[in-house]
Design brief:
Structural class: mainly alpha
Low-confidence stretches: 153-162
Number of helices: 9
Mean pLDDT: 89
Radius of gyration: 18 Å
Shape: globular
Strand content: 5-15%
Strand order of the largest sheet: 1-2-3-4
Helix content: 40-55%
Oligomer: single chain
C-alpha cells in the first residue's frame, strides 16, 4: 500500500523509506514506542454529541479535510505492523482505540509483534470497567503499564516521593487497575468530568502489566 501524503514534516511509519530504521531495530532487538492518532473525540464535531468535549475542544484535530482521519491512522498502524513482523512495537495510549477496544483486540490477534501501553488513558477505559477488565484479562500478555501524567512534577529534580501530584497520579492508576471502586471523580488530574470505575484486575494480570511484559520486551535486546 502506498503511504499517505502529509503536509507536516516527516513520514508515516508505513512509508517504505522507514523500512531500514525499523528493520535495524529488529536486528538489534530494540523495541519501538510508537504514537498513533489521538482519541476519537478529537476528530468528532465539537458539539453536545461529543462525549469527550471537555478535553477534545482543547486537543481537537483541525483541517480534517487535509489530514489522515482516525481510521486512516489505524490502517497505517496495521500496515506498519505487517511490514515489520520481526520488529517489536509498543503502541502508546492503547493505540488511541479506547472508544472501541475490540479494534485493538483485532490488531493483537493479527500481529504478534506488538504491545500497547495504557498511559494517559485511565479516564477513558475506566468508564467501561466490565468491558475493559475482560479485555485486560484476555490480553494481559500484550499490555504494559504507563502513566504519562504528572510529568511536570519531575522538573528541577523534584523528589517525586514527596510530591503530592505524583503521589495522586500513582494512587489513581492503582485505584483504577486494582480496586472495584465505583463512580469516583478525578477531574483535576485527568481532565475529563465523567466518573471513573475500578477494574479489579487479577493478580496475574497486574503482575504482567506492571512488570513482566516490560521485562520480556527489554530482554529481547539480549536475544
Amino acid at each position: 500500500m502506498s503511504y499517505c501524503p502529509t503536509k507536516t514534516p516527516g513520514m508515516h511509519p508505513d512509508d517504505p523509506r522507514m523500512d531500514p530504521l525499523f528493520e535495524k531495530c529488529a536486528e538489534l532487538g530494540l523495541p519501538v514506542n510508537l504514537h498513533i492518532a489521538d482519541p476519537m473525540w478529537m476528530y468528532e464535531p465539537m458539539d453536545s454529541t461529543n462525549d469527550g468535549l471537555m478535553r477534545a475542544y482543547t486537543w481537537r484535530i483541525q483541517n480534517q479535510d487535509e489530514i489522515v482521519g482516525h481510521q486512516g491512522m489505524i490502517d497505517i498502524l496495521d500496515n506498519t505492523l505487517a511490514r515489520h513482523p520481526n520488529t517489536t512495537f509498543v503502541i502508546a495510549h492503547l493505540g488511541n482505540l479506547t472508544y472501541d477496544l475490540s479494534k485493538l483486540g483485532e490488531l493483537f490477534d493479527k500481529h504478534p509483534n506488538f504491545y500497547a501501553d495504557i498511559s494517559a488513558r485511565f479516564a477513558e477505559f475506566s468508564t467501561i470497567p466490565r468491558t475493559a477488565a475482560r479485555f485486560f484479562e484476555e490480553y494481559q500478555d500484550r499490555i504494559v503499564y504507563g502513566t504519562d501524567y504528572g510529568w511536570e512534577t519531575f522538573d528541577n529534580h523534584t523528589d517525586y516521593g514527596n510530591n503530592t501530584t505524583t503521589v495522586e497520579m500513582f494512587r489513581m492508576t492503582f485505584r483504577v487497575l486494582e480496586t472495584l471502586d465505583d463512580h469516583f471523580y478525578l477531574t483535576d488530574l485527568v481532565g475529563y468530568k465523567w466518573p471513573m470505575y475500578g477494574l479489579g484486575l487479577s493478580d496475574e494480570a497486574l503482575r504482567k502489566i506492571y512488570r513482566a511484559n516490560a521485562l520480556e520486551i527489554m530482554q529481547q535486546r539480549n536475544m
